[in-house]
Amino acid sequence: MTFVHPFDDPLVIAGQGTIADEIVRQHPRDLTAIFVPVGGGGLLAGIGAYMKSVMPEVRVIGVEPIDSDAMNRALKAGHQVNLENPGLFADGVAVRQVGRHTFPIVQSTTEEIVLVNNDEICAAIKDIFDDTRTIVEPAGALAVAGLKSYVERAGIRDRHLVALLSGANMNFDRLRFVAERAELGESREALLAVTIPEKPGSFRQFCAAIGPRVITEFNYRLNERNRADVFVGLSVGSREDAMNVKAELIRQGYETADLTDNELAKLHVRYMVGGHARGVKRERLCRFEFPERPGALLQFLDTLGGRWNISLFHYRNHGSDFGRVLAALEVPSHEDSAFEHFLAVLGYRFLVEDGNDAYRRFLEPSADR
Questions:
Q1: For residue range 141-193, what is the model confidence (pLDDT) as tens digits?
Q2: ∠ CA 163-169-170 to the nearest 5 degrees?
Q3: Among 108, 112, 114, 113, residue whose Cα is nearest residue 56
């Protein structure tokens, strides 16, 4: 049988380029830029080759997830590069390496690559739904997210811009995650950690300091008798508005930290706020990505082999190909090298989070504070 490559084939690239032909036929004048989702580069190469032949003044702009930017890195390096662990949220564009046919074409026809994060992708999915009542997958919304980021950065107005919607293979269970993160991606919600006095009336005083804003989330549990750390979500008008709220709380004497961009806080801590554990001995904290398959947890436990006690564990299913897990283990200092070896041989993506501010404020054992 003949293998047809999904993107790294000259005829496939040419076929992708017919999309640019449709764009030009439907909107033949005053185009400023076309935003194209990028995985292996077939779509971007095809559209770029056609546009630079027919309308070279139109900017061709690729869009990639910030954690799966194989084309962006290749263009910066001047050659193909290999991503060790591409992000999987926008799995439709998650490739380790761009094509040998696509890369030189993209190199000569594309003006720039815009990078977007998962929250911006979720906000774009919501925008597309609001406008068209259709639901696209994360990779399908990538170009809209890039267009929004580009417009905000460049401050352009009154121009004709095109964004390609490239797929609707959405897992229904993933919609929960998208809905939770869309407001953050649109800068309509801010997550703050605020320290308030532990005394009667302090909660009301804090709410008065916030003013007439909608509180989207409030998590708190008594821990110390003289102070309390609260996890609060607020509706805001923009990122600048959120910064002003933080500055105003600090001005009024509240110790305040912005957790809006803290992945540990958004994925795990907001569901776990319950006070600092007591009696835990030297906790090591890691975020893992478990493959969503039977036996993934058992593999984790078998590799662990009962060497260290699990002192914290949190998992939520988001309908993806991998599960996001927060786990802590009691590891004596003289066994740190063995712990690092365990992480290496486990084979799952991980990030050590021992010093994370959200963990320190809400979950870190009292003995370690």
A1: 999 999 999 999 999 999 999 999 998 988 887 888 888 888 888 888 899 99
A2: 95
A3: 108
Q: How many CB atoms lie within 10 A of CB 304?
A: 15
- Is the pLDDT score of 201 beyond 80? no
Q: Which two tokens stand for residue 64?
A: 């990639």
CA 190, CA 205: separation in Å to the nearest integer? 20
pLDDT attached to residue 77: 96
CA triple 313-318-324, angle to 5 deg: 35
Class of domain 10-185: alpha beta
Domain ranges of the chain: 10-185, 189-261, 274-368
Instruction: Tokens 């750390």: give the residue.
Output: 229
Whether domain 274-368 has CATH 3.40.1020.10: yes
| Cβ–Cβ under 8 Å, residues 338 and 107 | no
User: 183 versus 7: which is more confidently predicted?
Assistant: 7
Helices then strands (H, E): number in the chain? 13, 12
pLDDT tens digits, one per residue of 208-263: 888 888 888 888 766 667 777 888 888 888 889 999 999 999 999 999 999 999 98
Element (H, E) at 233: strand 227-235
Could you tell me which of 239, 196, 119 has the C-alpha nearest to residue 361? 196
What helix, strand, coil percent values describe the chain, rounded to 5? Answer: 40, 20, 35
* Pairing state between β 160-163 and 31-37: parallel
